[in-house]
Amino acid sequence: MSESELHLAKAPIVEAVVDIDCDMPPAFDLTALEGKACEKYRSEYPKFRAQFLEQHSFESKSHEPAKHSARRTIQAFQFQHDDEKQLVQIRAQGFSFNRLAPYTSLDGYLSEIQRAWKLFVEIAMPVQFRTVRLRYINRILLPMTGGRIALDKYIQVCPRLPDEDTMEFASFLNQHVAVEIGTGYQVNSVLTAQRSQSEKLPIIFDNCVVAAEPGDPQDWDSILSKIQSLRDLKNRIFRNTLTDTCMNLFQDQD
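The structure assignment produced for this chain is given below.
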């Protein structure tokens, strides 16, 4: 099923992410790229911030005070639009494009993803790309009646209680990890419930698909082909996880 066939008037997407993980050159130094990266991206993404990872370790010997050491390393440069709804990341492991709601369709962002990726290749000079990952985080508000809900009315791949007559869900987390047989693409699908609000049960549907096939960073057509194939797969997962009743929640009710 293509994305055009899955067009939704009220898509529940809160964030869409394209990750391209790479093998970087042996002497790769992310810190040294800050100036050049800011120069290349600032016209479209004027807001900049660095993301750090802090690691703490403690060594303890008998009868001696514990010794503490800390290490802080940079993990990514993030470049954001003024409205902070769209950002590009240069990561220690590769490249990412994030789009927050409101989201239109992947086709509408592909030319910008291509442009931003080519700048990344120019700046970082990756040896090869290793994986292409497409991740969609959806927040779905399911209607409740009297504080209760029949989940199987809205979710086809639905968690079940051991005794549904005497129990009701306080929360749940339902995860499926799979491989598509024909392509070898990896699937990680997670459904989890948030605290109910105003007779609505918010469900987070994290739909992630991965193509682990190395390739030439200069070969955008190969990357694009993987993104499009992954889109078809994530659409099938989305459609086959939810019922028609749930899908109707994403259409105009006027």
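Interim note for the steering committee: The mean pLDDT is 89. The chain has one domain: 4-250.
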